Amino acid sequence: MNTRSWTALALVALAVVVVFFALRETHSDPDSAPGRAASQETIKPIPSNPDTVTPR
Fold it and tell me: Based on C-alpha coordinates, what's the Rg of the chain?
């Protein structure tokens, strides 16, 4: 492999790393997912003892 091939391979690897970190930051940021905060508020905790829950 000549220098041009190694340079192209390094650029592709760098692009993969940049895309990986960009996607990871986007999906780990709770403010970037507006529906996530609303859905967390509507989730009710599951009781550990079902006998203490009032029937519907």
Answer: 24
The pLDDT, as a whole number, for residue 1 is 75
**DSSP code, position 32:** G
Amino acid letter, 8: A
Integer Cα distance of 25 and 18 in angstroms: 11
The number of helices, as runs of H, and strands, as runs of E, in the chain is 2, 0
Phi, psi dihedrals of residue 3, rounded to the nearest 5° = -65, -35
Higher pLDDT, 32 or 4: 4
The residues spanned by each domain of the chain are 3-42
